[in-house]
Amino acid sequence: IVLTGGDDHLWKTWGFPDGNILLTGEGHTDWLSGCCFRPSGTQLVTSSGDTTVRLWDLSRSGCILTLRGHSRAVRGCSWHSCGDFVASASADCTSKIWDVSSERCRYTLRGHKDSVNSIEFLPLSSTVVTSSADKTLSLWDVR
Is the pLDDT confidence value at 89 over 80? Predict the structure, then answer.
Protein backbone atom coordinates (compact mmCIF):
# COMPACT_ATOMS: atom_id res chain seq x y z
CA ILE A 1 0.00 0.00 0.00
CA VAL A 2 1.25 3.46 -0.92
CA LEU A 3 -0.13 6.74 0.45
CA THR A 4 -0.21 9.95 -1.60
CA GLY A 5 -1.56 13.49 -1.26
CA GLY A 6 -1.87 16.15 -3.91
CA ASP A 7 -3.03 19.48 -5.25
CA ASP A 8 -6.58 18.10 -5.56
CA HIS A 9 -6.96 18.35 -1.72
CA LEU A 10 -7.25 14.54 -1.46
CA TRP A 11 -5.19 11.72 0.01
CA LYS A 12 -5.31 8.28 -1.56
CA THR A 13 -4.09 4.81 -0.69
CA TRP A 14 -3.02 2.65 -3.60
CA GLY A 15 -2.69 -1.12 -3.79
CA PHE A 16 0.23 -2.68 -5.60
CA PRO A 17 1.12 -4.26 -7.94
CA ASP A 18 -2.24 -3.42 -9.58
CA GLY A 19 -2.13 0.32 -8.79
CA ASN A 20 -5.80 0.48 -7.85
CA ILE A 21 -7.11 3.16 -5.47
CA LEU A 22 -8.15 1.56 -2.17
CA LEU A 23 -9.27 4.61 -0.16
CA THR A 24 -9.70 8.33 -0.77
CA GLY A 25 -10.05 11.00 1.91
CA GLU A 26 -11.34 14.50 1.48
CA GLY A 27 -11.68 17.36 3.93
CA HIS A 28 -8.73 19.69 3.40
CA THR A 29 -9.51 22.95 1.59
CA ASP A 30 -6.08 23.35 -0.04
CA TRP A 31 -3.21 21.22 -1.39
CA LEU A 32 -1.74 18.39 0.68
CA SER A 33 1.93 18.75 1.50
CA GLY A 34 2.48 15.61 3.54
CA CYS A 35 0.91 12.37 4.63
CA CYS A 36 2.09 9.35 6.56
CA PHE A 37 0.75 6.27 8.31
CA ARG A 38 0.58 5.94 12.08
CA PRO A 39 3.06 3.24 13.14
CA SER A 40 0.14 0.91 14.00
CA GLY A 41 -1.16 1.33 10.45
CA THR A 42 -4.74 2.11 11.52
CA GLN A 43 -4.63 5.88 11.02
CA LEU A 44 -2.79 8.49 9.04
CA VAL A 45 -1.86 12.16 9.36
CA THR A 46 -1.95 14.80 6.62
CA SER A 47 -0.69 18.37 6.38
CA SER A 48 -2.01 21.05 4.07
CA GLY A 49 -1.76 24.52 2.65
CA ASP A 50 -5.01 25.22 4.53
CA THR A 51 -2.89 25.60 7.75
CA THR A 52 -4.25 22.41 9.35
CA VAL A 53 -3.04 18.96 10.28
CA ARG A 54 -5.64 16.20 10.14
CA LEU A 55 -5.82 12.70 11.56
CA TRP A 56 -7.79 10.09 9.65
CA ASP A 57 -9.22 6.70 10.62
CA LEU A 58 -8.57 4.28 7.77
CA SER A 59 -11.47 2.01 8.66
CA ARG A 60 -13.87 4.92 8.00
CA SER A 61 -11.80 7.01 5.54
CA GLY A 62 -12.95 9.89 7.73
CA CYS A 63 -11.23 12.74 9.53
CA ILE A 64 -11.26 12.15 13.28
CA LEU A 65 -9.28 15.21 14.39
CA THR A 66 -8.27 18.57 12.94
CA LEU A 67 -5.30 20.26 14.59
CA ARG A 68 -5.24 24.04 14.26
CA GLY A 69 -2.52 26.42 15.39
CA HIS A 70 -0.29 27.26 12.45
CA SER A 71 -0.85 30.65 10.81
CA ARG A 72 0.47 29.68 7.36
CA ALA A 73 0.64 26.57 5.18
CA VAL A 74 1.77 23.38 6.89
CA ARG A 75 4.63 21.95 4.82
CA GLY A 76 5.07 18.52 6.38
CA CYS A 77 4.08 16.09 9.12
CA SER A 78 5.28 12.89 10.76
CA TRP A 79 4.37 10.42 13.51
CA HIS A 80 6.54 9.56 16.48
CA SER A 81 7.37 5.84 16.55
CA CYS A 82 5.19 5.34 19.66
CA GLY A 83 2.18 6.67 17.74
CA ASP A 84 1.15 9.16 20.46
CA PHE A 85 2.64 12.32 18.93
CA VAL A 86 2.52 14.07 15.58
CA ALA A 87 4.99 16.72 14.41
CA SER A 88 4.21 19.46 11.89
CA ALA A 89 6.38 21.98 10.01
CA SER A 90 4.99 25.27 8.72
CA ALA A 91 5.67 28.25 6.50
CA ASP A 92 4.99 30.36 9.63
CA CYS A 93 8.62 29.55 10.68
CA THR A 94 7.51 27.19 13.47
CA SER A 95 7.09 23.49 14.06
CA LYS A 96 4.67 21.93 16.49
CA ILE A 97 4.53 18.70 18.48
CA TRP A 98 0.95 17.56 18.90
CA ASP A 99 -0.26 15.18 21.63
CA VAL A 100 -2.82 13.00 19.88
CA SER A 101 -4.42 11.80 23.14
CA SER A 102 -5.13 15.27 24.51
CA GLU A 103 -5.75 16.67 20.99
CA ARG A 104 -3.58 19.74 21.57
CA CYS A 105 -0.21 21.24 20.89
CA ARG A 106 2.41 20.13 23.40
CA TYR A 107 5.31 22.30 22.09
CA THR A 108 5.89 25.03 19.53
CA LEU A 109 9.45 25.00 18.20
CA ARG A 110 10.76 28.46 17.29
CA GLY A 111 14.17 29.36 15.92
CA HIS A 112 14.12 29.12 12.15
CA LYS A 113 14.15 32.43 10.26
CA ASP A 114 12.15 31.19 7.25
CA SER A 115 9.61 28.51 6.33
CA VAL A 116 10.11 25.12 8.00
CA ASN A 117 9.72 22.71 5.11
CA SER A 118 10.10 19.27 6.68
CA ILE A 119 10.10 17.54 10.04
CA GLU A 120 10.88 13.99 11.14
CA PHE A 121 11.22 12.20 14.47
CA LEU A 122 14.43 10.24 14.70
CA PRO A 123 13.52 6.57 15.24
CA LEU A 124 12.80 5.54 18.82
CA SER A 125 13.89 8.86 20.30
CA SER A 126 12.58 12.22 21.49
CA THR A 127 14.65 14.07 18.89
CA VAL A 128 13.12 15.87 15.93
CA VAL A 129 14.99 17.16 12.89
CA THR A 130 13.66 20.12 10.91
CA SER A 131 14.82 21.67 7.64
CA SER A 132 14.12 25.24 6.67
CA ALA A 133 14.22 27.63 3.72
CA ASP A 134 16.72 29.58 5.87
CA LYS A 135 19.22 26.90 4.71
CA THR A 136 19.58 25.26 8.12
CA LEU A 137 18.80 21.94 9.76
CA SER A 138 17.93 21.89 13.45
CA LEU A 139 17.80 19.09 16.00
CA TRP A 140 15.27 19.49 18.82
CA ASP A 141 14.89 17.52 22.05
CA VAL A 142 11.12 17.48 22.58
CA ARG A 143 11.06 15.84 26.00
Answer: yes
pTM above 0.85, yes or no: yes
Strand order from edge to edge, sheet including 62-68: 32-37, 43-48, 52-57, 62-68
Query: CA 47 to CA 50: how far, in whole Å?
Result: 8
Residues 123-143 as b/e (b if ≥16 CB within 10 A, e otherwise) read eeeeebebbbeeeeebebebe
> Could you give the 3-state DSSP secondary structure of residue 42?
coil
Residue 11's domain spans which residues? 2-141
Quote the CA–CA distance of 72 and 130 in Å, as a whole number.
17
Q: Write the CATH number for 25.
A: 2.130.10.10
Residue 89's contacts (CB-CB under 8 Å, 6 or more residues apart) are 47, 74, 75, 76, 77, 95, 116, 117, 118, 119, 130
Is residue 32 packed enough to be buried (19+ CB in 10 Å), middle (13-18) or exposed (0-12)?
buried
Pairing mode of beta strands 43-48, 32-37: antiparallel
Count how many domains the chain has: 1
The pLDDT mean for the chain works out to 96
